[in-house]
UniProtKB/TrEMBL annotation:
Protein's name in the database: MurNAc-LAA domain-containing protein
InterPro entries given in the database record: MurNAc-LAA_cat, N-acetylmuramoyl_amidase_3
Acetylation found in the keyword field: no
Superkingdom of origin organism: Bacteria
Keyword Methyltransferase: no
PANTHER family, A to Z: N-ACETYLMURAMOYL-L-ALANINE AMIDASE (PTHR30404), N-ACETYLMURAMOYL-L-ALANINE AMIDASE AMIC (PTHR30404:SF0)
Length: 277
């Protein structure tokens, strides 16, 4: 079991940076909870503790004490930046002179976050910051855009963008700590050709649960599917408000706005490769 401590910056009487109608303490909490939920729901043997789950006031000492007492093996502190509206972009910090392991974690997490977002890349930095200095474990502090920069703020206002930020952190954790997925996904469809028995395809628009049915049609949660993924569909029935069979005993519930189901015409099915390019 690995133990990851995630610290949503600020909180309570300390709003952190404020700008363009956004408040840092709210964004950091949203992102931190997203990171926790993805890690705990989708990966094996990960324990996550947040320094706060609501709008509490916490001193910096209380935060690092909590991580040290819990015995975390990694600390992540999530922040949003601010200056005077002119600067923009993403950057992260480790403590100056941190060892090779911490530097390697920063390299990987930075790279994975930059793959998910289109923030300007301000680089991998070092800083003598309390959260990095007073924690007993490798620690990283991320500054996810500038709240007082109109262009960054427009991104931070979008829930889907906060999800990209969270997913970037998660992908970094997965590589840095070699995390293993909880259950395999059904095979993704590359759009090339229809398989025997396939009646259509599903594109995932928002995170949605994948379910397994047993012989009595009882559901067991398998995992969460990612936006952008596509799967072959082999059947549909009306159980549980309507579910699509995506093979291997796996089912996805019909949910407006979460998936897009398409049944191409026969002629199109023949030309599926071109149709889905
Ligand atoms: Zn901050």
């Amino acid at each position: 079991m690995v133990k990851k401590f995630i610290d949503p910056g600020h909180g309570g009487i300390d709003p952190g940076a404020v700008g363009n109608g956004l408040v840092e303490k709210e964004l950091t909490l949203t992102i931190a909870k997203m990171i926790r939920d993805i890690l705990v729901n989708e990966y094996q043997d990960v324990e996550v503790k947040l320094s706060r789950e609501g709008d509490q006031t916490l001193s910096l000492n209380e935060r690092t004490d909590m991580a040290n007492e819990w015995g975390a093996d990694f600390l992540l502190s999530v922040h949003i930046n601010a200056t005077n509206g002119k600067a923009n972009g993403y950057e992260d910090f480790i403590y100056p002179g941190s060892g090779d392991a911490t530097t390697a974690h920063q390299n990987v997490i930075h790279e994975e976050i930059m793959k998910q977002v289109d923030f300007y890349d301000r680089g991998k930095k070092q800083g003598n910051l309390h959260m990095l200095r007073e924690s007993n474990m490798p620690a990283l502090l991320t500054e996810n855009g500038f709240i007082d920069n109109p262009s960054d703020a427009a991104k931070l206002r979008r829930h889907a963008y906060l999800e990209r930020i969270a997913q970037g952190h998660v992908n970094g954790f997965v590589r840095a700590f070699n995390l293993k997925e909880k259950a395999p996904k059904p095979p993704m469809w590359d759009g090339s050709e229809f398989k025997e028995g396939q009646i259509g395809r599903i594109s995932i628009l928002k995170r949605i649960n994948l379910w397994k049915r047993d012989e009595n049609n009882n559901l067991t949660f398998v995992r969460v599917l990612q936006p952008g993924d596509r799967y072959r569909v082999y059947g549909y029935d009306n159980l549980y408000g309507g579910q699509y069979n995506v093979g291997g005993g796996n089912w996805i519930t019909k949910m407006e706005g979460y998936i897009k189901y398409e049944t191409p015409s026969k002629a199109m099915m023949k030309k599926a490769a071109e149709f889905y390019k």
